[in-house]
Amino acid sequence: MKNNLTLSIFLFPIFLGCSERSKQTHKIDPRLSPKDFLESLEPDSIPKIFLPDVVSTGLHEHNGILSPEMDRLYYTVSDTNFTNFRVLQMPLKSNLKDMPTIASFSGEYTDHAVSFSPDGNVMYFSSTRPQRNLQDWDLWYSNKTDSSWNAPQKMSGSVNTNLWESHASVTRHGSIYFQANYDGGGYNFDIYVTHEENNTYKASEKLSSAVNSELIEATPFIAPDESYIIFTSYNRADGYGDADLYISFKNENKQWTTAMNMGPTVNSVFEESNPNVSADGAYFFFSSKRVLDDQKGQNTFGNGSMDVYWMKADIIEQLRTKIMD
């Protein structure tokens, strides 16, 4: 409870201040549906912060993902030391009267990185529950009910270990892609996949060198049909900053193509991570630490902490054409 109270106290003044600014910034027809509301925010082929002063503030906001119904945004908020993690949810209502709140399953423990099964019936997330050992994250899930989500359960089988498993991303066939530090522990992450067979998950497999390298690979997003994967890699020779987003496609032989940097439209001299694509394939979300104007060190978005960015997802098809031709 102490950690929850600490983060709540930290969040409160930011939400209090941004609620007044958001009323002035976002003048939108209150009759809009969630889908029309998203379009009213004018997503472009150039990334921009998603709901500045509402979702993105002076903390670390990352791993933004739309619900399968596309009527709310889930995302993680962390303190500046990355010691407290909570999952927040923001209803996409055009009057913006409802500010982000801690998700129903989060708040008591350290939780992070929500994702959904393609059919929308299962929510996955990463957690250190019931302890707070930040070196032992595990994958958890919750099944959808008529009105909410049921009590979270830790994934069984061979998926979780006493090391670090997080950032699950799931295909239509139930395969789960995730990051783990099986080679050396610490922050030596690579991307793994586990396949479901007879209602249980098989031993995890490390993705090939087309995706993984001797460096760090993390925060994967897998397309529901497994046709492409987007992930973060740190300090590659072709990178623009400390961490960049890369993409790889499945070729006609069902092999991953050599991962390509997503380019300067997406990546910057700062750090980009936590990719997600909306269920309808229209929007691409990611996190960035880019600094805007003279806001570094200020208690606002664009200050060098993580913010949730979004853009139209057409860049994925552009890169597919470039790689596959």
TrEMBL record:
InterPro entries: 6-blade_b-propeller_TolB-like, WD40. This is WD40-like Beta Propeller Repeat. SUPFAM superfamilies: DPP6 N-terminal domain-like. It comes from the Bacteria. Pfam families: PD40. It comes from Splendidivirga corallicola.
